[in-house]
Design a protein that fits this description.
Length: about 300
């Protein structure tokens, strides 16, 4: 008991390393089911936690996250300090719309069949309490590249630093080991992107394409993606997030399921603002000319212990 007070168990999918496959399940809750949903959410999270052991060979992992607009209904007694609706923004043609869901189940594995099996099981556990409103399946493309052809995730925090970046600490004790989650489904305009010469693509990302080498600082255009998202706080420390994005889709619609995990909600919002609105001198993120955010949702992925205590 003392141990779980001191160090609540995080959901293992929050900081997990990359996988080959993913399933994203977005649910809305039926009205008035909260007292049944609380234990159900805790059971699903516990089930996912146990499967990480059972299917360790295929690196199974996942997490359950609760939508910003649904949080107070499910857990009326306490709310994560920085949990708020998705920060929708727009400037010219650059749109980051909000589209909220009550529940998000994030499942990943190196075996697609296991993922499908678990997704079915999770839906059955929730039956009668929630409605499945959206589903996407993600996949690893080439050597962990986005569909633009650029390696995605290189500058992600590594090792134990992933936990430091992604998990709430003592600043919000009840929610320790939880994580703020932001999800945006981006649809790429690949025919437009693929008409760009490679050097122009590289200038937009700020790294080389094939070899994935970072541009020298003085060569990074102010409109490049990595320039726009590489931000410092007032004390000069770099603002970090943990990205768990993966490519998704089919010939009709494809792009990046962008997923940010962080111990605060501020870093994501500042980065998105810098991409869409730019630096105040007219420099926005030119990657946005080639992709469009279709959704934007904010969640919190609590620790296992929080969900179990709240269900008791
Ligand atoms: C870096 C792609 C959206 C935050 C990168 C890199 C690529 C990339 C290729 C360079 C390699 C790496 O370090 O991972 C994309 C695509 C996006 C997208 C295709 C959407 C279509 C976003 C959004 C945010 C974001 C919405 C945050 C609001 C970052 C950060 C880095 C990064 C923090 C690391 C920057 C550094 O320190 O060098 N992204 N990204 N990205 N991206 Fe994105």
């Amino acid at each position: 008991y003392m141990d779980s007070q001191v160090m609540p168990r995080e959901q293992l999918g929050v900081c997990a390393e990359g996988n080959l496959h993913s399933v994203y399940l977005m649910f809305n809750a039926e009205d008035g089911v909260e007292s049944q949903l609380r234990p159900c959410v805790a059971n699903v999270a516990q089930y996912i936690y146990e499967l990480s052991d059972q299917y360790a060979d295929s690196a199974f992992n996942g997490f359950v996250a609760i939508g910003a607009n649904y949080w107070d209904s499910l857990y009326p007694l306490s709310r994560p300090a920085q949990l708020k609706p998705f920060p929708a923004m727009n400037a010219d043609n650059r749109d980051a719309p909000a589209h909220e869901y009550d529940l998000f189940i994030h499942l990943r594995c190196d075996r697609y069949d296991i993922l499908h099996l678990v997704a079915n099981e999770v839906c059955q556990m929730f039956e009668g309490l929630v409605e499945l409103v959206d589903e996407e399946r993600g996949f690893q493309f080439m050597d962990a590249r986005d569909l633009t052809g650029f390696v995605d995730g290189t500058e992600n925090p590594k090792g134990r630093h992933r936990q430091e970046v992604a998990l709430v600490g003592d600043e919000d004790a009840i929610f320790r080991s939880g994580s703020y989650v932001h999800v945006q489904k981006y649809a790429h305009n690949l025919s437009k992107w693929n008409r760009l010469p490679q050097k122009k693509q590289e200038d937009i990302i700020g790294r080389t394409k094939i070899d994935n080498i970072e541009y020298a600082s003085q060569d990074k255009p102010l409109t490049s993606h990595i320039k726009r998202v590489n931000l410092k706080d007032s004390q000069g420390r770099s603002m970090e997030i943990l990205r768990q994005s993966m490519p998704y889709g089919s010939m009709k619609e494809q792009g990046l399921m962008f997923i940010s995990l962080c111990r605060n909600s501020e870093h994501f919002e500042k980065m998105l603002h810098s991409m869409i609105h730019g630096d105040g001198a007219g420099n926005h993120d030119h990657l946005m000319h080639f992709t469009q955010a279709l959704t934007g949702s904010a969640f919190f992925a609590p620790s296992l212990d929080f969900m179990q205590n709240a269900a008791a």
